[in-house]
TrEMBL record:
<feature type="domain" description="Activator of Hsp90 ATPase homologue 1/2-like C-terminal">
    <location>
        <begin position="22"/>
        <end position="152"/>
    </location>
</feature>
<dbReference type="InterPro" id="IPR013538">
    <property type="entry name" value="ASHA1/2-like_C"/>
</dbReference>
<dbReference type="InterPro" id="IPR023393">
    <property type="entry name" value="START-like_dom_sf"/>
</dbReference>
<comment type="similarity">
    <text>Belongs to the AHA1 family.</text>
</comment>
<dbReference type="Pfam" id="PF08327">
    <property type="entry name" value="AHSA1"/>
</dbReference>
<protein>
    <submittedName>
        <fullName>SRPBCC family protein</fullName>
    </submittedName>
</protein>
Amino acid sequence: MSDYGDVTEAGTVRFRRVLPGPVERVWAFLTEPEKRATWFGGGPMELRAGGAARMHIRHANLSPGETPPEKYRKANEGIEFDYCILAAEPPRLLAFTWPGEEGTPDSEVTITLTEQGDRVLLELTHRRLDRPGMIDVSGGWHIHLDLLRAKLEGTAAPAFWASVARYESEYPQRIP
């Protein structure tokens, strides 16, 4: 299984990671704001269909000592946005909207967790994207899921901004 996102249909990219379990621990890193902030972004989340959520992504906390590329300097200090929970079935399914860029509709993210012995298969599917959106979110999900795996394994996190630059150059060739 590759760490790279796969195009599963038009406008859809899927990522798969096998992570150390148990499933409840992985679920906690997806849904508890303090734990989620260590690999992605914190913020409150009402875990029910139709629930409100707010994301606070602080890239500077994910990339200590790294200088972000110029185009991400502003984002490095923080991004905040509201989104909506579409489904929450602890500890197996989480689905939510993802705000589109100005003038584009929201997309949808679904994360499923499946136990595999003492490991957990995480599948993240991001739908309703145009090609530029697929390229953009693919690099982001790739590095954030790498950070999640490192956090769960207790290993050193990869260099955030160096990874972003790498995936930005690779995904345009991977997304048809």
